[in-house]
UniProtKB/TrEMBL annotation:
UniProt keyword terms in alphabetical order: Hydrolase
GO terms assigned for molecular function: hydrolase activity
Pfam families listed in its UniProt record: Hydrolase
Protein name: Hydrolase, haloacid delahogenase-like family
Keyword Hydrolase in annotation: yes
Lineage: Bacteria, Bacillati, Actinomycetota, Actinomycetes, Frankiales
Entry-linked Gene3D superfamilies: HAD superfamily/HAD-like, Putative phosphatase, domain 2
Source organism, top-level taxon: Bacteria
Cited InterPro entries: HAD-like_sf (IPR036412), HAD_sf (IPR023214), PGP-like_dom2 (IPR023198), S-2-haloacid_dehalogenase (IPR051540)
């Protein structure tokens, strides 16, 4: 990747880029399917939950609390008045209080980026939960600015770049989601590094990855500092 202009600011995603996240949701949804097994098969449960999440996205947004509401609604639709409630609430609570596991090499990569660039955290979801995960990760001091947003669309990134005082062509976003970390930044004229994670939430999966001269895919966050060093050499 060769940058048309020097990158000034590097944005880094949180969930499944810096710390594990989707694994816990995947495990929780296995338990949801088990609890609803008397009423529907696992594939039917998964389809129903995804449909509910998509329908409610503009109302509930992202995060554990919205997931819990969507699970409760899905359970009501599949099981009617017999749907359990307390086990699903407990699942949601466990997601909100579980340990935060920083991905291997993430801290070192962010520190390396910070030695040459302004590095900002750009993560979305529930404000309280994201703050908790950032604090528990021990990475808060690595960032010159932290932005926790309800959604990651072009308008959100444009507002952030205006606040940071950086033009899109000097901004690089790094994250695991094609939908949230790559596509909207490219649309604005910025740069993107896609770092795929082993599992992706169904609503974050792109039907077709975008092929673009201003994006690249790497296997690990640890590779990103070298990309910027190579370009400036």
């Amino acid at each position: 990747m060769r940058f048309a202009e020097p990158v000034e600011v590097v944005g880094v995603d949180g969930d499944d880029t810096l710390w594990r996240c989707q694994d816990a949701f995947d495990d929780a949804e296995v338990e949801v399917a088990r609890l609803l097994a008397p009423y529907a098969g696992p594939e039917q449960v998964a389809r129903a939950l995804a449909r509910t999440e998509r329908t409610n996205l503009s109302t509930y947004g992202f995060g554990v609390k919205s997931w819990t509401l969507n699970v409760l609604q899905t359970a009501q639709e599949l099981a009617g008045p017999d749907a359990p409630v307390v086990p699903f609430l407990e699942l949601g609570r466990s997601l909100l209080t579980g340990p935060v596991e920083v991905l291997p090499g993430a801290e070192e990569a962010v520190l390396a980026l910070g030695r040459t660039h302004r590095v900002v955290l750009v993560t979305k979801g529930d404000l309280v939960d994201q703050r908790r995960k950032l604090a528990a990760s021990g990475l808060a001091g690595c960032f010159s600015h932290v932005e926790i947003v309800p959604d990651k669309g072009p308008a959100t990134y444009a507002e952030l770049l205006r606040f940071l005082g950086v033009p899109p062509e000097r901004f690089l976003m790094v994250g695991n989601s094609e939908v949230s970390d790559v596509h909207p930044v490219l649309e604005l004229g910025g740069w993107a590094v896609h770092v795929p994670y082993r599992t992706t939430w169904v609503l974050e999966r792109a039907e077709t990855p975008v092929v673009h001269e201003r994006r690249v895919t790497v296997a690990s966050l640890s590779e990103v500092p070298a990309l910027l060093r190579a370009d400036s050499a």
